[in-house]
Amino acid sequence: MNSKPIGLASDHAGYDLKMQIREYLDARGMSYEDFGTDSTASCDYSDFGHALGRAVDEGRVDIGIAVCGSGEGISMTLNKHQKVRAGLVWNTDVTHLIRQHNNANVIVFPGRFISKEDAYACLDEFFATPFEGGRHQARIDKIPLQ
To answer: Quick one: which of 88, 92, 108, 132 has the most CB atoms within 10 Å?
Structure first.
């Protein structure tokens, strides 16, 4: 694993799961930088998605984990950043494919719709699955705006 920290971000609806993900990372000795939020008080997912997205664009983090209520809003925000490939997941099959085919560098969870156990299983899959490359690289090269 990279020596850079893993970036974390959530809104209020994703805060509890993000804190459980911090426990997952701590238990595995994985360092992270948390870009917020720091409570369950209502807030805007875009503020924290952009903070994580900027960190990826600037190379401060290579990998990110993000959570909002549905996972959609923060995913949309993250994918506005040129170097981010954020994938919304809800099971290990989808997680495997976002890494293998899309070389996703940010995994996104729907905090209101996924259990801690399922999120942990997805994280295990995310960290264990390599990018397949080949024909998929040409597709990924077309993602950033030129």
So the answer is: 108
Whether the Cβ atoms of residue 107 and residue 7 lie closer than 8 Å to each other:
no
**12 carries an active-site annotation:** no
Q: Which of 50, 81, 101, 136 is flagged as catalytic?
A: 101
Helices 116-128 and 92-100: angle between axes, nearest 10 degrees: 30
Handedness of CA 123, 125, 129, 135 (dihedral sign): negative
pLDDT per residue as tens digits for the range 41-93: 999 999 999 999 999 999 999 999 999 999 999 999 999 999 999 999 999 99
Closest C-alpha among 116, 59, 73, 71 to residue 98: 71
